[in-house]
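Lecture 7 notes: from sequence to structure.

We start with a single chain of 165 residues. Read the sequence below before looking at the structure.
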Amino acid sequence: MSQASDSLKLFATLLVAWILLSGSIAFDVVAVGVAAALFITLISQNSLSAFSGLRALPQSFGASLGYVGFFLSELVRANLRMAKIVLDPALPIRPAIVRARTELTHPVARLLLANSITLTPGTLSVEIKDEWLYVHWVVAEGTDNETATREIVEGFERYLKVMYG
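Now the structure, written as tokens:
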């Protein structure tokens, strides 16, 4: 069941992406999208681990949209914050490697969390070990676990918990 469910999730995701990117629901455009999504799904059957564990529920879809929105807003905020730091002659940085706790257990959810943190300027995921995520933080607002968890992890994690449980 898991393989079929993963295949269906991949097919649906690819088809929705096709329709959104093409901007059309004309029969010929959707037909090409169906064919392309089906082809990619068929050749990817043995490598669908990115979709394993993803819940196919309405709230997961909403959480996915929320996750993307949150990530984009954090990306803009972090870029502006880092630009301000770089342009300041005093270069006000307080680098530290901090340890933040994650409640995520699914490997894909943890991977998405670590990659989102790394893609956000000013933070770099260094290691995930058990429930701990080690992050290099350019402007550490605190080096205790609670502060690092609250400031770095919790925003992303609230969406990933809904998406992956």
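The chain has a mean pLDDT of 89. Keep this in mind for problem set 3.
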